Structure of Threonine/homoserine efflux transporter RhtA:
Amino acid sequence: MNQNKLLGIGNERRFDTQLKADFMMLIVTILWGTSYLFMKMGLDSLQVFNLIALRFGIAFILAGAVFYKRLIRINFKTFFYGFILGSILFSLISVVTIGLKFTSISNAGFLFSLSVVFVPLLLAIFFKTKPEKRVVIGVGIAIIGIALLTFNNELKINSGDYLIILGALFYAIQIIVTAKLTKNVDSITLGIIQLGVAGAWGLLFSLFFEKPHLPSTTESWVSIMALSVLCSAIGFIGQAVAQKHTTPTHTGLIFSLEPVFAALFAFIFVGETLPVKGYVGAILILIGVLAAEISFKKPFMRKKFNKTVDGSEA
């Protein structure tokens, strides 16, 4: 059998696997795009920490039931790493959920996407990794977009927008910490523990600062179950599985579509729209995020053509 054909089949299978992984990441991104809408719905009848406790508590129980064999084999290192990541997750979800009480779903989606820009900036600050020119350009474009999206007639940004930006910063920290901690531990088990820790913190804060209760309306139950099953359990586990078979660049580019889906769902289900300058700002933020993610260098060419096994040009 021709060895070149075997190589071709291998490349085709890898391409097919990455295509499936990218499609899974797209589904996860769509699900996360709905999370702003469901959080907004849940806040109509539930307080912030009560909502977080239910969301991640149910997600932990469901994910744990599916992957119980992994949880049985958990070691202290995985649990400790999960505790750190779960605490960061609780912090970012808390500020985003509170922020949603004071800003729109569309604003929240686009502002939260700034986490993609924050990652290389934080790496430059704490790990002395010099940011590429495209990141600097992306940040500049995104800042202009933020100004147009959030400034009102008095040139002020409301508290909700500030909190969403803070949440994006926390998410960037979580991405970096996750990259450091996932080595030599099972990523799915780590993700499940992360959900459980975030839910436990939510319950603790709810007991101290609120009066926790179960949802009392159909709408609030729908929001909680959607956040738990779709956005948390399926979302986080789907991300962990898909990222094994696709590249960070593909992941970042697909995730940059999240605010687009958030704005789309907000328009379809609650009729939320932005002023013209808001749409211009949102587009600029999206361009800034894409500019920070996409490398404009010409792809490496293997001597212009692929070589066959015997050294001749294909």
